[in-house]
UniProtKB/TrEMBL annotation:
Residues 31-128 form the Rhodanese domain. InterPro entries: Rhodanese-like_dom, Rhodanese-like_dom_sf. Signal peptide: none annotated. It comes from the Bacteria. This is Rhodanese-like domain-containing protein. It holds the Pfam family Rhodanese. PANTHER family: THIOSULFATE SULFURTRANSFERASE PSPE (PTHR44086:SF13), THIOSULFATE SULFURTRANSFERASE RDL2, MITOCHONDRIAL-RELATED (PTHR44086).
Amino acid sequence: MTLNISSKQLVQEASAKIKTLSLEEAKLLLGKPDVQFVDIRDVRELQQEGTIPGAFHAPRGMLEFWVDPDSPYFKPVFGEAKQFVFFCRSASRSALASAALQDMGLKNVAHIAGGYSAWKESGGDIATPEKSL
């Protein structure tokens, strides 16, 4: 099978048009009332590895629907005037998500260089989610 564009190329193109925060920049934003971190990883990843404190969990598969105010799945958090900082495990999904949401018109979108793995390895604060049965 031959693809017109690889997933790596998609991520590179997305990364070229979005804001990428360094770990240091992201850590300085943690806890600010006008900033919302958004974890787009699968719920299993979140439960196994924890998350960034205060992050809103929005699974990648539903993200565009949760952001769209005309969607029946809209989540009010995305209607707030905040800076949104998206992250996934390694910054590939968050690059694609940030680019898509920026294209949709969501303002103040960024993602974290290296993703959650880099955050965790750098000693960033971690929260353990409550496990639901």
